[in-house]
């Protein structure tokens, strides 16, 4: 079987919303690793879908599986399991030593300062349940496999979450105001920082790659501060009884795994990061 020239990282799901934010970072050469992107459409370097012949794909050292199903009923969302299995099979066929799977902080449900070791997964949404099932399948795939697998419990990504339209001025942002007068506080990560985290994990020796890791900036941010930093106006409403003010992640494990990757950024720095990404798109 013939393959194209090797690369460091093969990225699947290049046509997705998250990849749209990361693509300009990799395209600008902001990481030292060579990256080839794959999409079922025309968004990637290579057009490819699961089930297609793999001889169009390059050998690689790492697969970053950005693809995923974010909406639908439980049956549709279980497609995330099949995509994880496909990423594992590709790794075996293309010589990859590690696969990074996009999971979600949503597997935890609401909570503060949640870590991989202290917080039991209690998803509050069908999407969170689906990602937890995907993680469980990945753990089974990793047993006795020559490929190292890491599930990234990803926080909100600036420019690729529910605030995205408001940050670009397409929509007026509406935020909940809680009894203390404040709004929602969340763990976030900006696209440039995320690209550096992914590159850092892709460079780790496989035996040092954590099986699961929270991915976020070190300190949570108020969603209102992101909007203010972007120069956007906010429409406030009284928070409904079921609203959760604070959902945050502990990133001690990530920081320990990647001590040379800076994880500090406030709202202003995150919006600047987003603007830099948009400028490169």
Topology:
Elements: E1 4-12, H1 17-27, E2 35-39, E3 46-47, E4 58-65, H2 74-77, H3 79-94, E5 98-102, H4 126-142, E6 148-154, E7 156-157, H5 164-167, E8 173-177, E9 185-186, E10 188-189, H6 191-203, E11 212-215, E12 221-222, H7 223-229, E13 234-238, E14 246-247, H8 252-257, H9 267-279
Helix pairs in contact: 1-6, 1-9, 3-4, 7-9
What's the gyration radius in Å? 19 Å
Order of helices and strands: EHEEEHHEHEEHEEEHEEHEEHH
Helical/strand content category: alpha/beta
Low-confidence stretches: none
Brief summary of the model shown:
Helices cover 32% and strands 21% of the residues. It has helices at residues 17-27, 74-77, 79-94, 126-142, 164-167, 191-203, 223-229, 252-257, 267-279; strands at 4-12, 35-39, 46-47, 58-65, 98-102, 148-154, 156-157, 173-177, 185-186, 188-189, 212-215, 221-222, 234-238, 246-247.
Task: Describe this entry's structure for a reader.
It comes from Roseovarius gahaiensis. This is NAD-dependent epimerase/dehydratase family protein. InterPro entries: Epimerase_deHydtase, NAD(P)-bd_dom_sf. Residues 59-161 form the NAD-dependent epimerase/dehydratase domain. Helices cover 32% and strands 21% of the residues. By secondary structure, it is α/β, with parallel strands linked by helices. The chain has a domain at 4-155 and 190-216 and 249-264: NAD(P)-binding Rossmann-like Domain (Rossmann fold, 3-Layer(aba) Sandwich), CATH 3.40.50.720. The strands form 4 sheets. Strands 3-2-1-4-5-6-11 form a 7-stranded parallel β-sheet, sandwiched between helices. Helix 1 (17-27) packs across helix 6 (191-203), helix 1 crosses helix 9 and helix 3 (79-94) runs parallel beside helix 4 (126-142). The two termini are 35 Å apart. The model has no long low-confidence stretch (mean pLDDT 91).
